[in-house]
Amino acid sequence: MNRKGFMETSFCGLKNNTSKIVIWILFLFIISVGIANTAMGYAVIYPAIPDQIKDKNEPEWTINLYQYQDESIPPLFWSVSDVDTDLVTVELFIEDSDWYLTITPVPDAVGSNDITLTLTSTRLGELGSVSDSQVITVTLLDPNPNNPPGQPSGNSPSDGAPDVSINSDLSWTCSDPDGDTLTYDLVLQPPEGPALTFENLSAPTYDPGTLQYDSTYVWFIYATDAHGSVTPGPFWSFTTESEPSILQFTQSDWGAAIESAGSINISVSRTGGSDGMVSVDFVLETGTTATQDSDFTVTAGPLTWADGDDTAKNIVINILNDSIFEPVETINLKLINAVDASIGAISTSTLAITSDDDFSYEHHPQPTGRIPDTGQYSSYTNTFGENHDYIINPPSYTKLDASGNSLADDAVSWTMVRDNVTGLIWE
User: Fold this and answer.
1) How high is the pLDDT of residue 121?
2) Rounded Cα distance, 24 and 19, in Å
């Protein structure tokens, strides 16, 4: 064989084979590019769908999705997901071969919703489908946005206040920039136990009932407007008053004491709190039948307790003894004018004084004269038995004390009078 011919033949054969290889490579490249273009081009959302920002009062609006897809190789399908139906409702539909999305706001709803839109292509048949997705944010705005309530303030008791009455009301002030009606939730934390919550109060004041003595409370307010916007207030605290002292007699009836008993102690107690100095005075109450400085003397008031002192104090009654028999007499005491304390339920007390003298009386002789009547000395008739027919005694009287003993004629005080003519005794 001719080498040249061999070489030419061999070269030509090689060239022909190389051409076939190149052709096959080009074919496969075209096929792969086509597939890639189909996957990347025909299921791509482009350009990006813009976010939707609308007034909450906006009626429904429609987006033409055709402008965001490459439809050169149909069919292409759209789908939607992640819709917040409390904010919007959506509808996908086809009209004249174009896809559309209608968005309808829920009445009076405001807020944002991230909706997912997916574009899917089934162009590749047995190679499967390809898709592309985009999240768009739908926002509904209030053209007259609500402003939240102002922060509660003007609190009473004031923050850190001491000696607050256990019967105090809690109050505060608060306003709303839009003039909305406000309601309040009050949270009150006592010194022990869980917090107390009082909800949906229509007025900025509340009576929490009787609080504990000498205790620190923490409280705060949530203010809520008609749109549900809430503004919390700051934390406040106050400390209640110490328990007040209660001053009262230890008993209401001290029974009876005889004249020779000397002195009697009538006790007054201090209960409740013992903080601070307190005092109470006393007086003789209506109904007292014993005579002060004649039947008894009493120590002067007021009774005073020092800070921390809770021992009982005594009102000392000194009974004055005499030799005159007297009926039972009473001393009635009443507590008055408590200072930095309260007078308790036993505010009055009674002591009886009995005489230890025997009852005695003078023997008065039987009158000897005739019993007079009107003292008439002359008779104006002839009838016997009228006044002038009898011995007439002049009137005569003697002053007597409570025991029936005679007193001098010039005595300025007496209990009874004896008619010396008749023997009758008059009180």
Assistant:
1) 79
2) 9
Structure tokens at 295: 């039947």
Q: Is 55 helix (H, G, I), strand (E, B) or coil?
A: strand
- Over residues 130-184, the pLDDT tens digits come to 788 999 999 999 888 889 999 999 999 999 999 999 999 999 999 999 999 999 9
Query: What is the distance between the alpha carbons of residues 310 and 266, in angstroms, rounded to a whole number?
Result: 16
For the chain, helix, strand, coil in percent to 5 are 10, 40, 50
Instruction: State the DSSP H helix or E strand holding residue 32, giving kind and residue range, or none if neither.
Output: helix 3-41
**Burial class, 345, CB count within 10 angstroms (exposed 0-12 / middle 13-18 / buried 19+):** exposed
DSSP secondary structure letters along 145-191: PPPPPPPPEEEESPTTEEEE-TTPPEEEE---TT----EEEEEEE-S
- Phi, psi (degrees; rounded to nearest 5) at 115: -100, 140
At 120 the pLDDT is 86
- Residues 246 and 376: their CA atoms lie apart, in Å, by 71
Pairing of strands 253-258, 263-272: unpaired
Query: pTM of this prediction?
Result: 0.48
With 0-12 CB in 10 A as exposed, 13-18 as middle and 19+ as buried, what is 115? Answer: buried
pLDDT confidence of residue 217: 98
Pull the structure tokens for residue 148: 């939240």
| Spatial distance between the Cα atoms of 90 and 83, rounded to a whole number of angstroms | 8
Token pair of 218, please? 């923490």
Q: Write out the DSSP string of 67-79.
A: GGS--SS--EEEE
From residue 286, how far is each of 247, 254, 333, 334 by CA, in Å? 21, 17, 9, 9
Q: What is the pLDDT of residues 397-408, one digit of tens each?
A: 899 888 788 899
Whether residue 334 has pLDDT greater than 90 = yes
Question: Would you call 328 helix, strand, or coil by DSSP?
Answer: coil
- What are the tens digits of pLDDT across the range 21-46? 545 454 444 444 444 444 444 568 88
Q: Which residue, chain included where needed, has tokens 């047995």?
A: 126
CA–CA gap between residue 160 and residue 172 (Å, rounded) = 15
